[in-house]
Write a structure and sequence with these properties.
mainly alpha
Length: 165
Amino acid sequence: MPGIEGVEVAVGTPTRPIERTLSTRLLSPRVIPLLLALVTFLVFMPTLWNDFVEWDDQVNLTGNQEYRGLMWPHIRWMFTTVLLGHWIPLTWLTFGLDFVIWGMKPAGYHLTSLVIFAANVSVSVFYFVALRLLRRAAGFAGGGGRGHALFRRPPAARRVPQLGD
């Protein structure tokens, strides 16, 4: 064909590296926990429109004046009370903070729980991703099968003592 001579055509141009870079960015160890926290938040977001539940909220929240605030008497009560058989001072502290911020609006209490839950998913996933990366970096990609080599006793320590020793 006239006019085509001297033109180089790239045969088999690699498109894979672009796809790998995009998937590597989207599935990087830093992004996965954030994506899972976001998905968790979105999935459970309808709970924000719920009222207080008829399980233990009447005893713990709506009928209880003691936790409502973060002053010293409230905090002392939170750390010294056992209500419904449970000693839960951190839960009482979050309830006290919820009351200070939201009053008695259930959406605020549910939002706090949802944020803590989504953050917990993110932290848990980060932990397992970090653990996997550390195992790979240390050469234990096979998991516990080779990991026991670090803690194995030397052969001399494995000898069973005999009765005349």
